[in-house]
Amino acid sequence: MILKSLIFINGFALFIGFLILFLDKVISRYGTVTITLNSEKEFKAEGGKSLLRVLFENKYFIPSACGGKGTCGYCKLVVSEGGGEALPTESLVLTPKEIRQGYRMSCQLKVRSDMAIYIPPEYLEIKEYTGEIVSTELVTSDIREIKIKLVEPESISFKPGQYVQIRFDVDGDFDYRAYSVASHPDTQGEIEINVKLIPEGLGSTYLHALRPGDTVYFSGPYGDFFLNTDSKRKIVCCAGGVGLAPLKAIARYWLTHASNREIEFYFGSRTTKDLYDHSMFEEMAGKSPNFKYFPALSDEDPEWDGERGFIHTIIDRHLEGGYKAEAYLCGPPIMIDAVTDVLLSKGVPQERILYDKF
Ligand SMILES: Cc1cc2nc3c(=O)[nH]c(=O)nc-3n(C[C@H](O)[C@H](O)[C@H](O)COP(=O)(O)OP(=O)(O)OC[C@H]3O[C@@H](n4cnc5c(N)ncnc54)[C@H](O)[C@@H]3O)c2cc1C
Ligand code: FES
């Protein structure tokens, strides 16, 4: 009897769930709505999709590194009219203050009526690009260095550390993922990205399968993780695994435009096979006494007689005069948190510790 009641309750709940989805998708027609941007421009859109998707389809590109899953929080925008109340999924990411200020997560907010929104001016500079794969090379067991020639437009202007969002097709629709640009910002006709293959990962599997001559679509540049080129302070870079990508762009920029600044470059890997582009950094260190390179392995490796241990312990051992430095970190969240603690204990102020976690 109890089992029968449970089956009935679960079945009923499932039915109601499907009914709500059906009503939302099929019966609800929001019609054509008007979106007003920054109190100056207007465009029409079909209601029913997320604000992020509507903006994307109208060539307004908003940072959305998680692909609209509601986890990165980058897609937040001020919606001054037509947004309704913040959803529970938004309250998990936005702070109460942001909600009071009118911020909404554009990937979660569905367009149902006319809306007035504010897009920061720098987002209006973000463009869509068509590129062609020039080369793709496996540099570790799971990381590929991929070079993309820009076809239309033929050049891109980005800051060392920023990322692009690469688009790919999935089940008759499209999705996208964020990848940091590893190339020198002056190499405008081509970009390099480094992609770690995630088992069953949609974006990384797509990118690993691309071959020279294939076409790719992406937008960018995005992100406020980039080198402060006006500063004269010592630069501390710390990379974990494929987190090397944006820091490579910073090191390449440093070599040609900022080599009078001291730089300490920490790179943590598991084994020598994961320490990709090692010779490039050794060469930089050989060229200038200002470039100090600290590669370190966390696993036992008989081929290695250099530093051993997690990368935050290596920074703890070597960094001096932290109060004079600014730091750029990129790698897994656990590494960023451990390194941040060490940098703070060495006197690097919190506001001068920038990072991208992925
Ligand atoms: C600002 C920014 C810059 C980035 N730059 C780079 C870059 O330069 N190079 C790069 O390779 N990646 C980069 N990433 C990560 C990248 O955007 C994707 O998240 C990553 O490639 C996984 O996407 P996917 O589509 O292959 O996996 P998904 O299809 O999104 O995920 C598949 C499954 O794998 C899990 N998963 C996702 N990521 C990981 C992970 N890292 N480790 C273990 N499991 C995971 C998911 O939880 C899910 O269960 C960046 C991310 C951000 C936010
Ligand atoms: S796109 Fe990542 S939270 Fe909205």
Account of the 3D structure:
The relative contact order is 0.10. The radius of gyration is 23 Å and the shape is globular. α8 runs parallel beside α9. The chain has helices at residues 2-27, 51-57, 88-91, 96-100, 202-209, 244-257, 278-287, 311-318, 333-345, and strands at residues 32-37, 41-46, 76-81, 103-105, 115-118, 127-138, 143-152, 163-170, 173-180, 190-196, 215-222, 234-240, 263-269, 291-297, 307-308, 325-331, 353-357. Strands 9-8-11-6-7-10 form a six-stranded antiparallel sheet. Strands 15-14-13-12-16-17 form a six-stranded parallel sheet, with helices on both faces. The N and C termini lie far apart (50 Å). It has 358 residues and is an alpha/beta fold. The mean pLDDT is 93. It has three domains: 30-123, Roll (Ubiquitin-like (UB roll)), CATH 3.10.20; 126-222, Elongation Factor Tu (Ef-tu), domain 3 (Beta Barrel); 234-357, Nucleotide-binding domain of ferredoxin-NADP reductase (FNR) module (Rossmann fold), CATH 3.40.50. Helices cover 27% and strands 32% of the residues. The longest helix is centred in the first third of the chain and has 26 residues, at 2-27. The structure holds flavin-adenine dinucleotide (FAD) and FE2/S2 (inorganic) cluster. Residues 65, 72, 163, 177-180, 193-196, 198, 200-204, 223, 242, 245, 356, 358 line the site of flavin-adenine dinucleotide.
